[in-house]
Design brief:
The complex is a heterodimer of chains A (about 300) and B (about 240). Chain A is α/β, with parallel strands linked by helices and about 300 residues long. Helix content of chain A is about 35%, strand content about 30%. The model of chain A has no long low-confidence stretch (mean pLDDT about 90). The chains are: A alpha/beta (about 300), B mainly alpha (about 240).
Chain lengths: ~300, ~240
């Protein structure tokens, strides 16, 4: 992978998994650099949650290998989980009978690195009421408890599966601010799966895109900013784009003479090809992360 | 890899102690039911004693093995051994964690047995029945063995209750059919439900009148050994470490 550093917190090789007839993961080769905030994007059922479970050895892949900080998860599952803070996709909790405070104490026993003072701070920040029973919490309140559990042992790896799902706008803002502060204080590699890409745009520095279990793109934020661009192009009547262009999305003006394309590739190369084909490039604009991701996934689905 | 300090996994002893605590806390509703039942029995027995009755029948055995067989289902009520439970997120090897939970349940079962024995002794003293007449009615080894078998079923099978009720239903069906067809086809002889019953009765009386401690030790060793072997085999389904 171009431009990525050599040191990876997470690597997977040929990761494949099926649930019956359904393909969850298909030869996925993830590379998450140490210290990166890696955003995993994909439609529902693309395999994002399965990938996270496999990283923690909660699910066993049919093929492939996973290494987390150099540890093979198949043979070092507990050691890997000791390095990870995990927010699962589900808001359901097994221990509905337990109070939030007891659940936090229960989790603390399992992580020798648990920072009790920090846990108390997180409880205050997230507005968790230790005396409340888990079974009486709303989705958002359960999510806030899950944030405390995931962050309080300052794990080197955070796996956040739709972390802001169920949170109200204030709580979402508080959670993302706390996450940013956490990352500033604690050296952490983060893998976030989310549909709300704009929320993590300021944090993300790497992006991976899953479609039907396949990792269709994996690149750094800079690479994405540089290579996924929107081109406003004037074209002659009956003009056809050159076949070698990677077109992510197309929008044509009502008259049909002006076309807006999201194209993948180095700007200089793409512009040169368009010129050579007889088109005139009027404007080239960068895309927000969400637009770029959507363009990529759209391209994959079209293909 | 750059140099970084990895977080340690928890100490096994801490996990074990926490499981004992957490299983104890989760069993509070069960404890409440037990207290209510025992209180009701105490009341009935005391009333009978005060009105000149015998207090309680001292001929049969207490059905503690049946209760202990179902006890693991109460312990695992909030978790799915084969599903994605919160429990499995912890940095402890799954098989060990499952066994820690079984051990925690055993600790509470042993405590419950001890308290039940104390309750029984107190009632026996009240009714004028000696300790031998009360304690001997609790099949301790059988209670522990069925707890181990119950735990093994729960950890070894994805749908243990279906298996338990399915097997019980099948046996009842076979028994019923053989009873119905006994005279015309001799199915009873073939399937042997009645014969099995009598054989079990004979076996029971034979076990009940074991002559010496040697055979008792052998019986204990066999039943607990089989229970333990079944439990370990079932727990191995949750083994996490795989060799490449």
């Amino acid at each position: 992978m171009n431009g990525l550093p050599e040191s990876f917190a997470v690597t997977t090789r040929g990761l494949s998994m099926r649930y019956g007839e359904q393909t969850a993961l298909d030869g996925v080769d993830l590379r998450i650099p140490e210290g990166a905030v890696y955003v995993l994007i994909g439609a529902n059922g693309a395999g994002k949650s399965t990938a996270m479970k496999v990283l923690l050895n909660l699910e066993r892949p049919d093929a492939g290998r996973v290494e987390v900080f150099g540890l093979d998860t198949a043979s070092h599952g507990p050691e890997v989980r000791a390095q990870a803070g995990y927010i699962p996709e589900s808001h359901e909790h097994d221990y509905k009978w337990m109070t939030c405070g007891r659940l936090i104490r229960h989790a603390a026993v399992h992580y020798p690195a648990w920072d009790h003072a920090y846990a108390e701070q997180l409880v205050r920040v997230f507005g968790v009421h230790p005396e409340r029973r888990i079974g009486t919490l709303s989705k958002g309140e359960t999510r806030r408890v899950q944030f405390v559990l995931a962050l309080a042992h300052r794990p080197p790896l955070l796996l956040l599966d739709e972390p802001t799902d169920g949170l109200d706008p204030m709580a979402r803002n508080r959670a993302l601010t706390q996450l940013a502060e956490h990352l500033a204080d604690t050296p952490t590699t983060v893998l976030i799966s989310t549909h709300h890409i704009h929320e993590v745009e300021s944090l993300a520095d790497h992006v991976g895109m899953l479609s039907a279990g396949r990792l269709v793109a994996q690149l750094s934020r800079d690479e994405m900013r540089r290579t996924v661009l929107r081109y406003r192009v004037e074209v002659p009547e009956g003009w056809q784009p050159p076949g070698e262009l990677r077109i992510a999305s197309t929008r044509r003006s009502p008259g049909g003479r002006e076309v807006q394309w999201t194209l993948v590739g180095e700007e200089r190369d793409v512009t040169a090809r368009l010129h050579a084909a007889g088109a005139t490039v009027r404007e080239v604009t960068p895309l927000a992360l969400e637009e770029a991701a959507l363009a990529f996934l759209g391209e994959e689905e079209t293909a | 890899m750059s140099e970084m300090t990895l977080h340690p996994a928890p100490r096994w002893r801490d996990v074990l102690v926490e499981q004992v605590r957490i299983v104890g806390l989760s069993l509070r509703p069960v404890l409440l039911v037990v207290i209510v039942v025992l209180a009701a029995f105490t009341f009935l027995i005391a009333r009978d004693l005060l009105s000149g009755g015998e207090g309680f029948d001292s001929s049969g055995m207490f059905p503690t093995p049946l209760i202990s067989f179902l006890f693991p289902f109460a312990i695992w009520l909030h978790e799915k051994p084969f599903g994605s439970s919160f429990l499995w997120i912890f940095p402890v090897e799954r098989r060990r964690l499952a066994l820690a939970k079984v051990f925690a349940g055993f600790v509470w079962l042993a405590l419950a047995l001890a308290l039940f024995t104390a309750w029984l002794l107190a009632l026996g003293a009240l009714a004028g029945v000696g300790p031998a007449g009360t304690i001997m009615r609790i099949p301790y080894i059988g209670t522990i063995a069925t707890y181990l078998f119950g735990s093994a079923l729960l950890l070894g099978l994805r749908h243990p209750l279906k298996w338990v009720f399915g097997t019980a239903g099948l046996l009842l069906l076979v028994g019923g059919v053989s009873q119905a067809l006994e005279h015309s086809y001799g199915m009873n002889t073939l399937l042997g439900s009645s014969r099995l019953f009598f054989a079990t009765e004979r076996l029971h009386s034979a076990w009940g009148s074991l002559p010496g401690p040697g055979q008792w030790i052998l019986g204990t060793f066999l039943s607990l050994g089989a229970g333990l072997a079944a439990l370990l085999a079932a727990a191995s389904r949750h083994r996490e470490r795989r060799r490449r």
